[in-house]
Fold these 2 entries.
Entry 1:
Amino acid sequence: MNVREVCIVGLAAVFAAGCSHAAAGAAAPPPPAVVVAPVEMRPVTLTSEWVATLDGFVNANIQPQVGGYLIKQDYREGAPVKKGEVLFEIDPRPFQAALDRAKGQLAQAQAQEVQAEAQVGEAQATLNANSLNVERDTPEAEAHAIPQSQLENDTQAKLAAGAGLAAARAAVASQKAAVVAAQAAVEQAQLNLGFTQVRSLIDGVAGIAQVQIGNLVSPQAVLTAVSQLDPIKAYFPISAQDYLRSMKHQDGAVDLLASSARLQLVLGDGSVFPHPGKILFADRQVDAATGTLRLAAAFPNPGNLLRPGQYGRVRAATQVLRQALLVPQTAVTELQGAYQVAVVNPGNTVAIRSVTLGATSGADWVVTSGVHAGEQVVLEGTAKVHDGMRVRPRAAKPEEAR
């Protein structure tokens, strides 16, 4: 070899030695760090939510009881009204005329009653006189002091007077009935006149008027509606299975219909209404089409914030689990419909396990099988671990675990 070749060979030997030392120094990488949290066992109260529709506690359609032309609207639409407050007025003139006519007929019937009673007095006097004649003439006729025919005439006159008295008394009874009928007609006319002022049936908030001034309205027309809004009702459906479980107290189920059950109302913007409600009643039957039972709840509504027709979600405690296994939701992964968690064993090796999940509780899952209390599950880095892999676990901080 020449000098150049010797140098090349020497440099190659030096480079190979350096590479071998570097390879020896580049040992296996350290196990990856993962964040873990323990599987907890503690009592848990589970809640459920149902879509609810709000409605007035009492809703009253305001309809007139007499027909006529509408001449005035006395309330402001959308404003609170009191029971008995006048909302609309119908032209009262025809009804005032009917009342005056009924009063006149009553006065006429009363006068005829007085006249009939006077006729009773006259008939009674005639009967008395004829009775005296019969009493006077009877002994004289027996003594043949007067003709027998005169006594017979007196007797016939007495009988005729008795019949006249009976007829007069019947006329009085008829006139009394006529007076009662006339009084009833007056009362009805007064009622009809009063009905020209259409009043609110309840305390509440009045809606938009459905008619205009000058319209001819009938008793079938709905003029507006008034709703009692404090408290307000919320209707929501629950499944027949949930209803049975609640009534039988199965698996720690809470009785929704109990007076102690308290409900929350989640509004459309996601906020929770500050006033809790309670169940009023359950419908009499399950809807055969949906398999649900309709419940009605009442919520205090100061200031009338809630209005009929709004939607929300009713939330209530439905089950109490005394010993529930809980894992953070971030520790659970789904693969083709199955749920898995990565458990770190005491030797810091990973075991991938299938788990069966129940309901959620806050940021946790209730696990019914697959893990045990106290085991450590991986919160972060589950995508880079596999079964049997060694890891460096780090306990999660409170804000990481929940």
Note: The longest strand covers residues 40-62.
Entry 2:
Amino acid sequence: MTDRRSFLRGTSALMAHASFPQVLATFLAGCAAVPANRREPTFFSRADMTRLAILVDLILPATDSPAATAAGTHEFIDVAMSACATIRQQSTFRAGLAALAAEGFDTKDVHERIASLQRRAAADIRLPYDESFFKILKDYTLTGYFHSEIGATQALAYERVPGGYQGDLALAPGQKAWAI
């Protein structure tokens, strides 16, 4: 019984990842067609999208590379959540956003928001992925950002025409990791 459940969980994850290129293509087509400030959310409400934009920027703020919202990471999550996440993950994510709203996240200053997110991460650490708002948020944020043009070319080192395969490259202190 456990083997079948493990198989089904793995298969569902594989199917979600198989749909990822289609999700990415849909997202990119939507980005080109409609300016960011006029795009209608597909999965979340406008208030949730505002909250989500704040959250992704808390995880990946602007440093020597642009913040997550500059790459449209919050919009990527809006598209990918309905196409790639399980019903349980969608429910967990919606409940997590609602819990943040209920605790007054939207009216807090940046330091209080960071503390709130850190508390949430600490509380979620031992939860399975499907039940962890923070794990899902972090996963989709990193995936959306580092698969974007900004993430791949400005946050990571990018080589347009790679040479031969070099499996083990040493990085100098402060050097960015390589995009693939």
Note: The longest helix spans residues 2-18.
